[in-house]
Amino acid sequence: MSTKYKTSNPEGIYFLSMATVEWVDVFTRREYCQIVLDSLKFCIEQKGLVLHAWVIMPNHLHLIASAAEGKLLSHILRDFKKFTAIKLLTAIQENPQESRKNWLQWIFESNGKRNPNNDHQQFWQQNSHPIELDSNFLMEQKLEYLHHNPVKAGFVEEPTHWRYSSAGDYEGGKGLLPLVLIG
């Protein structure tokens, strides 16, 4: 059995990337970002997700996360992706302000039809590319990469200026989600 892209260490801390199909920009609207935030908070409070850092970009998100004792991160992520996909697809469909509704629906449906794991639509790319952060070097590298993602993309000048990120938490502020800081 392949161990590539698996959370094989139940006690490990992982860097995770979740991208929308076709890298389509969905998280350009606050209401869609809020669905992700609410879902992460639920997973923290009810499912045993331990969140260490996060960022939401227009077409993907990065997390540094682990699971509480007795929980499996792979199961938490599976449930998170399934739930958010349903909520986000519904929100897009029901949003009267969504000018890209037909185009987005076509993308999600065409990707869903090509994937035998889906019934109708596919929102997220299939896996989350987990990388176990088993050294301080890797932990610091991925934490910096995650927080500097919006800067590198040219959206902000400083990591703490990006609303949908835990960068402020690491500078002593109180962010949007409860975290267990690392480093």
UniProtKB/TrEMBL annotation:
Which ranges carry the Transposase IS200-like domain? 9-149
Q: Where is the signal peptide?
A: none
Query: Which GO molecular function terms does the record list?
Result: sequence-specific DNA binding; transposase activity
Family annotation (SMART domains): Y1_Tnp
Name of the protein described by the UniProt record: Transposase
Q: Which GO terms describe its biological process?
A: DNA transposition
NCBIfam families with a match to the protein in the record: REP_Tyr_transpos
According to its UniProt entry, this protein's organism is: Nibribacter ruber
